[in-house]
Design brief:
With about 400 residues, the chain is of the alpha+beta class. The chain has 17 helices and seven strands. The chain has three domains: about 5-80, Integrase, DNA-binding domain (Double Stranded RNA Binding Domain), CATH 3.30.160; about 100-200, DNA polymerase, domain 1, CATH 1.10.150; about 210-395, hpI Integrase, Chain A, CATH 1.10.443.10. A four-stranded antiparallel sheet has the order 1-2-3-4, with helices on one face. A hairpin with a 2-residue loop joins β1 and β2 (about 25-30). It is elongated and about 100 Å long. The protein starts with a helix and ends with a helix.
């Protein structure tokens, strides 16, 4: 029989749980301590039995409990599990109160900072760029309500100021914030995806680097550098591996397998956020052996002088090149250009060279090609040939 208010009020708790049924799955459960709560028993769309709480009596009246039962049965008639729907509603309610661009950007940044943990500087710089160039314009706006033209205006300001690299970084970060918002249910589309067609394309100048004819001069200067053995060995490794200077400064001994002649750089330290394998030619292994005698007791290959938990200054390699007389002619990052040019002249495939530099291949090739070209006759042989050439011309 259906429940009445009088019957509910007259019901007393017992030594065990007392269950009163109102029919169609609605029940009132009375605990031995006297609390009363509404329950709805039902069969899920997958055929399994389930029970969900609707609220406490008398806060939720008999009439209100029946209304909720009716709502639950309507959902079941549509093949929707009421418990799953309740969870979804809670998620949407939570996100509805945290859907400003600033709030979502902070969530995205906190997530990315875990990947950038090896470089707190990157996390600090990226958030600083958003605070300076983006948040003053859209900070407290609902992310789904910011129009493409508004984003275009923000990026155009950077273009007008000649800050093309900053524009590229801001565009990329904000686009990723929207991707994060979409997967967390707080945005339905990404207004930054197609803005590139309305922006100027800027080909930045390459980093200063010596020509192939000037390589013997550079190698000889590195070999004769006597201000710091640590820096000398680091510069040699840059010429032998073509890694980014920051990847080398933060390198840890645990990443190296000298027997297999491979350096495995973890994804969180890579610009492309993917792990990278670097083949080590014989000359690089010899250099690493010499370096290990100096810093092998530390975690980092290049520990700082005052704090061995941090690497040497990001200016250390550059300052050494200036002292050698290469100011304005060659910078540490320019070594990658020098190596790439040399490998192209030696006739090696562009895909091998781009993978050595940890570059993404252009167009559809970059989407579907994930080969690392680490077979012995591929990148390892290429870098050994480069090292042999480098140090043979360095002795000429």
């Amino acid at each position: 029989m259906a429940l009445t208010v009088r019957k509910i009020e007259a019901s007393k708790p017992g030594t065990k749980v007392v269950t009163l049924s109102d029919g169609s799955g609605l029940q009132l459960v009375i605990s031995p301590r006297g609390s009363k709560g509404w329950r709805f028993r039902y069969t899920r769309p997958n055929g399994k039995r389930n029970v969900m709480s609707l609220g406490s009596y008398p806060e939720l009246t008999l009439a209100e409990a029946r209304e909720k039962r009716t709502d639950m049965r309507r959902l079941l008639a549509q093949g929707i599990d009421p418990v799953e729907q309740r969870r979804e509603d809670k998620r949407e309610q939570l996100y509805a109160t945290e859907n400003t661009f600033a709030a979502i950007a902070r969530e995205w940044h906190d997530t990315m900072a875990l990947r950038w943990k090896a470089s707190s500087k990157r996390a600090k710089q990226s958030w600083g760029a958003l605070e300076l160039h983006v948040l003053p314009h859209v900070e407290n706006r609902a992310i789904d309500g910011i129009k493409p033209l508004e984003w275009l205006a923000i990026l155009k300001r950077l273009e007008a100021a000649g800050k093309f690299e900053q524009k590229r970084n801001i565009h990329s970060m904000c686009r990723d914030v929207y991707r994060f918002a979409i997967v967390t249910g707080r945005a339905t589309y990404n207004p930054l995806t197609d803005l590139g067609v309305a922006l100027q394309k800027h080909r930045g100048e390459s980093f200063s680097h010596v020509s192939q004819a000037e390589i013997p001069e550079l190698i000889q200067a590195i070999e004769q550098y006597d201000k710091s053995v640590l820096i000398k060995l680091g510069l040699k490794l840059l010429t032998l591996t073509a890694v980014r200077p920051g990847e080398l400064r933060w390198a840890r001994w645990e990443e190296f397998d000298l027997e297999a002649a491979i350096w495995k750089i973890p994804a969180e330290r890579m610009k492309m956020a993917r792990p990278h394998q670097v083949p080590l030619p014989r000359q690089a292994i010899e250099t690493l052996g010499e370096l290990h005698r100096l810093t092998g007791r530390y975690g980092l290959l290049f520990p700082g002088r005052n704090n061995t938990m941090q690497p040497i200054s990001d200016a250390a390699f550059g300052m050494a090149l200036k002292r050698m007389g290469f100011e304005g002619r060659h910078v540490p990052h320019g070594t990658r250009h020098m190596v790439a040019t040399g490998l192209k002249e030696m006739g090696y495939p562009g895909e091998w060279i781009e993978m050595q530099l940890s570059h993404k291949l252009p167009g559809i090739q970059g989407v579907y090609t994930h080969a690392e070209h680490m077979a012995p006759e591929q990148r390892p042989a290429m870098m050994q040939a480069w090292a042999d050439r480098l140090y043979s011309i360095g002795k000429d």
